[in-house]
Amino acid sequence: MKITQIFVAVAALSALSITPAAYAADSVATVNGKPIKQTWVDYIMKDAQTRGQKPSDAMKNAIINELVGSELAYQEAQKQGIDKLPDYKINEELTQRKLLVNIFLADYMKKNPVTEADTKAAYEQYKKELGDKEYNARHILVKTEAEANDILAQIKKGSDFAKLAKEKSMDPGSKEKGGDLGWFSPAGMVKPFSDAVATLKKGEVSPAPVQTQFGWHVIKMIDTRATQVPAYDKVKEGLERTLQQRKLEKMMLDLKAKAKIDVPGVTGATGATK
Questions:
Q1: Considering the entire predicted model, what is its pTM?
Q2: Residue 184 burial (10 A CB sphere; 0-12, 13-18, 19+)
């Protein structure tokens, strides 16, 4: 059982039997008079349970042994003055801040959970955004309109679209597939591209190049079909994560709006003016 990375490094030191002694009320062992706290063991046991591990005496003993090993290393590090080094102090400060922030965010989500109604509403919006039709198209992406017009001229003369895509397209994701983009919904593409695709019939090539922020596209419609919407259960977990992220982002933006933030030389860092 893996508790923390640091415990692994001292596992050899901790492979010892713990002999009962007159420990303090809140300790399960002592190392050179220093207690291994029961609360530490309880916390690690609880955390292991939340990760799906079944508590047992063997788990408890393993935790105690690893805590004993880490305490030996901890005491030796103190003897060598490592806890006084500047880098340690900075790391300690940052680690404490990160821990406090993570607990705060977890507590916020516990108090402001994403409900079943939230995810179902998000699912309905997701279906709406997908639309009722999906497209399968090829495209050839080039830098300039002149290049795109030259490709269109070659296609009109009978050149093979897929071959031209392999030779000239700048899109690494579809180039080797002859420009084939697979099935996609309009929402999955930038608007100028999806608008152009929606006007094409099966087998038709766009009459003129289509410009997007990526360059100039020559598009060929392969086929269309009714949208294949994934079942709610298949996307529920992803929707929950998205909604949780949005809640956290909104909360942080609200905090920023109320705060006075001054970062000289950095734009966009200032919060509310007070």
A1: 0.62
A2: middle
